[in-house]
Design a protein that fits this description.
With about 160 residues, this protein is mainly α. The protein has a domain of about 110 residues. Helix content is about 90%, strand content about 0%. It contains two helices and no strands. It is rod-shaped. It starts with 7 loop residues before the first helix and ends with a helix. The relative contact order is 0.03. The mean pLDDT is about 85. It is a single-pass membrane protein. This is ATP synthase subunit b.
C-alpha cells in the first residue's frame, strides 16, 4: 500500500530529482537537440527550395528546348525552300541554255541547208547551161536546111538528156 500512498519525503525527493534533471537537460541537452531540430528544419526547407528552383529551371530549360526546336524547324524549312528555289532556277537556266543552243543549232542547220540548196541550184543551172550549149552545138553542126530534121534532132536530144 505504500506505493499507492507515497510518503511526503519520497514525493519531495522525486520532485527535486526531476527539477535537477530538468535543469541539467535544459542546460546541456535541450539547446543541442533544438539546434539539431532547427538545422534539420532549415535543411528540409533548403532542400524544398532547391527542388522548387530545380523544377522551375527544368521548366525554363524545357521551354528553351521547345523554342530552339521550333527555330530549328523553321530554319530547316527555310533551307529546304531555298534549296527548292535554287533547284528550280538551275533547271530553268539549263532549259533556257538548252533552248538557246537548240535554236543556234537549228539556225546553223537552216543556213547549211540554204547554202546547199543554193549550191545545188547553181550546179543545176550550170548543168542546164552545159546541156543547152551541147544541144546548140549539135544543132549548129547538123544541116540547118531542113526544119523537120532540126525539130527531130532537138526532141531526140531532150529525150536523151537526163535532168537530176
Amino acid at each position: 500500500m505504500d506505493l499507492i500512498k507515497p510518503g511526503f519525503g519520497l514525493v519531495f525527493w522525486t520532485v527535486i530529482t526531476f527539477l535537477i534533471l530538468l535543469f541539467l537537460l535544459r542546460k546541456f541537452a535541450w539547446r543541442p537537440i533544438l539546434g539539431a531540430v532547427s538545422e534539420r528544419e532549415e535543411g528540409i526547407k533548403n532542400a524544398l527550395a532547391s527542388a522548387e528552383n530545380a523544377r522551375k529551371e527544368m521548366e525554363n530549360l524545357q521551354a528553351d528546348n521547345e523554342r530552339i526546336l521550333q527555330e530549328a524547324r523553321v530554319e530547316r524549312e527555310a533551307m529546304l525552300k531555298d534549296a527548292r528555289e535554287i533547284r528550280e532556277q538551275t533547271i530553268a537556266r539549263a532549259e533556257t541554255e538548252a533552248q538557246e543552243k537548240a535554236s543556234k543549232i537549228i539556225e546553223k542547220a537552216q543556213a547549211a541547208i540554204e547554202s546547199e540548196k543554193k549550191a545545188a541550184m547553181a550546179e543545176l543551172k550550170s548543168h542546164v547551161a552545159g546541156l543547152s550549149i551541147e544541144i546548140a552545138e549539135k544543132v549548129v553542126r547538123e544541116e540547118l536546111s531542113n526544119k523537120d530534121k532540126q525539130l527531130k534532132l532537138v526532141e531526140g536530144m531532150l529525150g536523151e538528156a537526163k535532168l537530176n
